[in-house]
Amino acid sequence: MPARLNEKLLSPIAGVVIFALVAIAGFAYVKWMPYYAKAFVAQSHHFIGDSILSGKAAAPPPASWSAATDYAIAYGKAIWQALVLGLILGSGIKVLLPAHWVGAALGRIGFRSVALAGLFATPCMMCTCCAAPVAAGMRQSRASVGSVVSWWISNPVLNPATLVFMGFVLGWDWALFRVVLGIAMVLVVAHLAEHYAGPQAAASLEQDLIPEAETSQDNLLLRWIREFMTLAIRLVPEYLVLVLLLGAARVWLFPVLGAHDGIGWIVAMALAGTLFVIPTAGEVPIVQAMFALGMGAGPAGALIMTLPAVSLPSLVMLRRVFSLRIRLVIAAGVALSGMVAGLVAMFVF
Fold first, then answer.
1. CA atoms within 13 A on the CB side of 343
2. Which runs of E-coded beta strand occur in 266-332?
3. Which of 79, 60, 69, 207 is nearest to 142 (CA)?
4. What distance in Å separates the CA atoms of residue 301 and residue 339, rounded to the nearest whole number?
5. pTM of the predicted structure, to 2 decimals
6. Which residue from 67, 123, 165, 180 has the least number of CB within 10 angstroms?
7. Those residues with Cβ within 8 angstroms of residue 298's Cβ, 6 or more apart along the chain or in another chain
8. Which pLDDT score, from 0 to 100, does residue 105 have?
């Protein structure tokens, strides 16, 4: 009997160990070591790079194919390694981790799963698009809607490296602002998404999207490669198209970088930040450049909260695991959180 029990446990435990080793090695190479070095640059120079929106110019370029491709290339260079890691881990969850284990840890509705997923996200430090494949894998492995949303948004919003960069570049008061309002955003948006998902969404996923890895007897590596390729083919082409479109449209989303303060600009920047896509910590040089051109604290607060949280490409990437209603609730929650943050910043700073 013990021999049979050990035989049954060997495969799941081995899968968890392999997944953990790949995740640790991947995050160390793609995130932890580069950000550790970048923190010293932020400390000594109070600068981590030019704004990805406009480079050294005062405004984004006019809408054109060149503007689209230039942005896509700059953005791609910044995130491609993290995107590959996200695809590896997103497919790995389905192949290596037993769905009932994921469900037991993160499948409950309520604060516990939301908080636990947020804690798991803290060391990952991924941007919203690179975190999307992992979020999809979590949801398909029976994690609750609230826990998936919490993990997904906590990655960019509560990223400790970004908070350090923000402290050295923009000031520690802005870093504290991000932490407090970021935690509130994660909890509120996750709760709203879970509330509007309802029990039917959870039931359909449990029946229809249980990973094939639990029943397939194929070679583990082949299953992993197959899942990776399936995920990449589903997500990357549409992702690239949307990045190109947003790269061309940035002149309309951010028409005047030196925006003044006021409720109108807060609303506009909250909406633009919710739609637009940036690499990890890209909001820090963007806001720094806008401050230099005279932007007020209100629009800055809205951008600091919404730019990293979600984007149009990342919302589209999760269309197979979240209904349109849930994604609209998430986007609306992020945009409204950004507007509230802008109003708070306007009176605090």
1. 8
2. none
3. 207
4. 8
5. 0.89
6. 180
7. 261, 262, 263, 265, 266, 342, 343, 345, 346
8. 85
